[in-house]
Amino acid sequence: xxxxxxxxxxxxxxxxxxxxxxxxxxxxxxxxxxxxxxxxxxxxxxxxxxxxxxxxxxxxxxxxxxxxxxxxxxxxxxxxxxxxxxxxxxxxxxxxxxxxxxxxxxxxxxxxxxxxxxxxxxxxxxxxxxxxxxxxxxxxxxxxxxxxxxxxxxxxxxxxxxxxxxxxxxxxxxxxxxxxxxxxxxxxxxxxxxxxxxxxxxxxxxxxxxxxxxxxxxxxxxxxxxxxxxxxxxxxxxxxxxxxxxxxxxxxxxxxxxxxxxxxxxxxxxxxxxxxxxxxxxxxxxxxxx
Length: 290
Description:
Layout: E1 4-14, E2 29-33, E3 41-51, E4 54-64, E5 68-75, E6 91-93, E7 103-105, E8 110-113, E9 116-121, E10 125-132, E11 137-148, E12 155-162, E13 165-173, E14 179-186, E15 188-195, E16 201-209, E17 212-217, E18 223-227, E19 233-238, E20 249-261, E21 268-275, E22 278-284
Antiparallel strand pairs: 1-4, 2-5, 3-4, 5-22, 6-20, 7-10, 8-9, 9-20, 10-19, 11-16, 11-20, 12-13, 12-19, 13-14, 14-15, 16-17, 17-18, 21-22
């Protein structure tokens, strides 16, 4: 039996401007398998950002164990295959839907402005309709900016069941510029230290791997591991886990949240640009057949 993995891969794609602009929705992409076609390539993708003339693109592919696949990515003027994070990730929200249809809770306590979710007071909490468990193998990522934090903190990313059943957190609080940071582990708090990331977009990551966790914040020395135990809890944003210190103002912005599968061994990926409109992607799955 050939073992396969369905993986979401990150592609860094160099892109030359067209008429001085970098097209997004105007030039959709099409992914087409060029080898191992039996295993197929999902043509769904999502563009995370554009930086230094490079796209960061996420695509979903099916890779046989200990084999390579290759596929082409083409940019097509007038095409219809526009980016769709819902088809790529296990959970995805770029807050293009101002009604927050993927969330429960105090939705009126948050605002959405040009695809950015804004929280402003610790009275309010939203929780994802979709739930997760500590036995999952997933990576949770949010792009978040702390403009001003509540004196006693607000929740950036974590999981919530009740005031005695909250996990992880990214709970920044204190005076601006240097934030005291805590995590929630069940019904207790763990102090993580002071971290300076005021006013800049950061990627907050939570990796869950069968009862273990690894939390990081991009471009900081925030890096912690441990164990956790919960079942069927939603992602939570806003109000503190213990329901305390409500009514405090803050200014936090979420650009997007996505959840993808975690692999013990990530595939090896090579991207070669053929011309301004076409790339060849090679993906190697190092996992052995079972």
